Queue: 2 jobs
Job 1
Amino acid sequence: MSSDPDKLVAKADKLTKLTLTRWSADWRNATLNYEQAANAYRVAKKYEKAKDAFEKASKGQEMLTSPWDAAKHMESAAALAKELGNWNDVADLYRRASELYVECGRAQPASDALGKAARAVEDHLPDVAVQLYTDACSLLEEDDKDQMAFDLYRALTAVHIKLEKYTDAAAALLRLGLAADKCNASNSQFKAYLSAIIVYLYANDVKAAEKCYNDCSQIPAFLGSDQGRCGSRLISAYSEGNVEEIKRVAQSSTITHLDHAIIKLGRKLPTGEVTAVKAGTEEGEGLDEDDLT
Amino acid sequence: MSVIDILTRVDAICNKYDKYDVEKQKNLNVSGDDAFARGYAAIDAEIEAALEKAELASKEKSKASTVALNAELRRTKAKLLDEVPKLQRLAIKKIKGLSTEDLAARNDLVLALPDRIQAIPDGAAAAAKQPGGWGPSASHTEIKFDSDGRFDDEYFQESEQSNQFRQEYETRKRRQDQGLEMISEGLDTLKNMAHDMNEELDRQVPLADEIDSKVDKAASDLKNTNVRLKHTVTQLRSSRNFCIDIVLLIIILGIAAYLYNVLKK
């Protein structure tokens, strides 16, 4: 076999084309040629050609009914596309690879592929990244492998925070909490809840933060935990309008153990006006008294 | 007659003529008939004994014996205080031959008893100034200082030494608090890390189980393959087959040589 990749590709193409003399394509040899060519291109740093060769090799493996190898080739193709900077291509190729992995019945590598895709495109196509992360998480949850989903949820939250979509970020954190609950990872669960409360407060939505805290307090362990107490201190500090207290709680060590993105948000608290909530309720009572006449 | 004999005789004569001792009889009679009087006399005697012990304790040099004596005193005081209510009940009872004035007097006597008991000094008032931090207990109204509130005495004045001591105490306490805070933060971090490690290990457990089963399968496959390989190789290279091969080779060579000879001719 000549080691010239172009010749290899040409040969392989000939093997796969159906002509009068050839009634069935010889995929085995063709795939072999494609793989060799792709490796040669990669070494020669001809990424475009390498990517094409990998794609063709993957198709060959599919024809040989070996989805595992096909998926592996797809992933290599996608990695090369990342080098090239074709973000859409990257997303598509990784999706294909993930589907092939699912065909093999292996959910873990499938979600890994989607995760790699999301990480690659999150800077350039954040919405696509969000979609990819969500799909990866649902893949794992279907397969009862929630533990692995934690990292993906955390990355998803970071993307949302970068996009300044705080409600989405908080929702992602609450889903993290749910996944943690299923595997009895109480520490991660409580940290997720506290992070959600902080995200709500950063978005200046005190009511939502309070509601979130009350919901999470339904779990008795959360109330008595470090994170729960920290959350209650924050909420009470907000309702009293005590800026000093908020700052002090934000410096506490419990917050320091959360994710980096959340720590940054916490240090920036309080945002906006921190007026005591009591002022609002007093006005309401005055009106009621008048109405009762 | 020796002195001892004289003493014995005197004692015998006294005993004989005791019933003519008016004073003694009165005392005996009174205490014999009356439960109240008896009880009162007993408590009185105990109070006297306790006061004597208190005197002794205040003169004691060694701290340990002072403490022990003070403890005794406190116990006695508590016991006496318990008996006072009993006596009170007895005091109200009317005894024949007792005037109303006497009854009232008895009541007063009984009421005065608790005060007398409490007044027995038992070293509880020794620390006139307690170092700060004992706020709530200082307001206990039943604790009485035996100095009757005379705090202007030289004994109780703040000396420079005690001021310095108090300041040093406060600085040390502050430093301790700082150190403890640092330790607490470190412990917090440790706790967090330990929790995370716990969760990580939990995550790894099912993976390890999978690896275990896969490796077991691979090992058994390998063993199988090895056995078959051995079988094949022995079949191929057994010495019997080798000898047969050599013999056949020799026969073929022989035939070839024979043919060669025949053709050469």
Note: The helical segments of chain B are 3-17, 22-33, 35-59, 63-92, 100-119, 135-138, 160-237, 239-264.
Job 2
Amino acid sequence: MKLKVYSYRRSQPVRAVIIFCKVNGIEFEEVRVDIAKREHCTPEFSEINPLNQLPAIVDGEFKLFESHAILIYLACSYPGVADHWYPSDIFKRSKIHSVLDWHHSNLRRGPVTIVQNSVVAPVFHRTFNPERVAEGEKILSAALSKIESFWLEGNGPFLLGVNQPSIADLSLVCDIMQLELLDEADRNRLLGLLTIKSYKMIHRL
Amino acid sequence: MTLKVYADRMSQPSRAVIIFCKMNGIDYEEIKVHISKGQHLTSEFEEINPMKRLPAITDGRFKLFESHAILIYLACAFPGVADHWYPADVSTRSRIHSVLDWHHSNLRRGAAPYVFNTTIAPVLGRPLNPQAAAEAEPILSSSLSKLESFWLKENGRFLLGGNQPSIADLSLVCEIMQLEVLDEKDRARILGPHKKVQQWIENTRNATSPHFDEVHKVLMKAKEKLQNQRLKAAKNEGGSDMKKALPSRM
């Protein structure tokens, strides 16, 4: 039975998982779940993920959700996934865990707060909330500074200064790309916070 | 002894790492960094962790922060760590990653700001923030419900139906223990409805005895101090109420 990936391409963590599968030649069936139509709240999808979130996967009888957990599972379970995505070396691997964890409470919170309280607010039954958007911008700005000054330190163009991308690069960049949903003026202002290093990383990916 | 653990035992994730080391007989030096005294903001500590957060470890020249990353590193790098903490089986391990990730955006997102903004903030020189607490409480309550109905739904004594604890049990239980410093009424209201959660906390405490209680002593002392402060404040309020009543009697 083929791997099933439950997906909504407007979701950042979903895109990270889909890109990972395609880049590594992992065969999968993409099952679209439209969040805007609340398909993630149906009893059918609750069978897949009782916490009603995307992405989720089903691999045979094994069900899994949370994108970082999924990326790690795929990297470990499918032959042919190059080591640089999730290195077997314990020290390199631990650093990847560290940035993935940092991501939850830092970078991810920024674009999510901005986008959910502005352009996609109606999808979440919210109204435009300038206060929350301002909060989100502060978080984003702080997170981008840390990426510039710390996570991209080193000789290579990717996170942790390495020469080839890992699952961490995929996860974080997909979150930054969410800013594409904003109107051009806001996006340019916020992406202007990125400097040369971050752009290089995004484009290389 | 090359492993150093930078910790403040008032910090939930610091406690998880310390208890893990003690349970597994890992040789380490605990370097206390007091958040309340701003020691995490010094340039010395910034050398260890530029994010200025706890816990952090150094193992020889290797530095690492983020408690889940640390727990996984210790489980993999130190011989003698029993498999149940971080099983080698890919599927079981993935489910542990899943609950650890869920924790960041759910339980921790609710519990940490709720406790901070109702109770702990003044200890760190910040004001209480009832609005932030009010926003955090539903996230905390919903997370406890999810633990009760989903993460603890299988037959075992621990998360994901396990009969022995994993690093996920340690991390999440240490987070919930922070609720001990709340006003008793609030704690009972928030935690009271969740019987499985309460039993699981007890199971984790017993499975990591005596280290669990020893490492939580600092928190329990803080709890006692805060309770005494509340009692004193209540008595003083009672006194001023009487003074207000007197003129009307006269």
Note: The CA atoms of residues 181 and 226 of chain B lie 7 Å apart.
